[in-house]
Amino acid sequence: MNITHILFDADGTLFDYEHAELQAFKNTLMGFHVKGNIEELHTSYKTINYAIWKDFEEHKISAKELRVERFKRFLAKEQLHHDSKEMSKTYIDHLSQCTMLLDGAKEIINYLRNDYSVSLITNGLADVQYSRIRNSELNDTFDHIFISEEIGFPKPMKEIFEHVFEVLDYPQKDEVLIVGDSFRSDIVGGKNYGIKTCWFNPQKLQNENGFEPDYEIEKLIELRTIL
After folding, report:
1. Is 55 annotated in the active site?
2. How far is residue 197's CA from residue 187's CA, in Å, rounded to a whole number?
3. Domains of the chain: residue spans and CATH
4. Which end of the chain has fewer beta carbons closer than 10 Å to its terminal beta carbon, N or C?
């Protein structure tokens, strides 16, 4: 395999999004003095958030709209009387400060960056991602950072990959590998564009998507055996 460029997803692949999202949510509710069962409220929010990110990936809603709409829906569902814009701002502020990495993230990036062009490609929000990257142990380790909000198209749409290839000066598609935990945005997006794919699947989820990624790993350090 003659790989020259590696595209890493951010949340759920390098950054511990589950931990960051839960902490940001808890801190936000505390700041607004919301009473009730935090776990149940978090489950409610996660369901809404998942659905709205799916809409974003299908280009049905913009990143700007997403920021507030998820809290508008959450507050309406839970019959909470707070300002959705203010709650969104507070949540994003908290999320921006969460920089925890997944096991092996720093090690694998440092291992690969000497021999490959290593970039980040994420559907996250620009202000959140830049803050988290800048304050994390991965600061100054990527050749390029591609954020869908800035590009105008999310993974898995072909347009974001077209932008990436333009910036990378059009490498051969079989020289590019995308590594990500989301089958829908990372693996389907990569497959449809014709590049190599590696599904990061630490939870050992069943693949019921109708086709196989080129590679599948449970731990990031396994990339050393592939590359």
Report:
1. no
2. 6
3. 5-15+100-226 (3.40.50.1000), 17-96 (1.10.150.240)
4. N
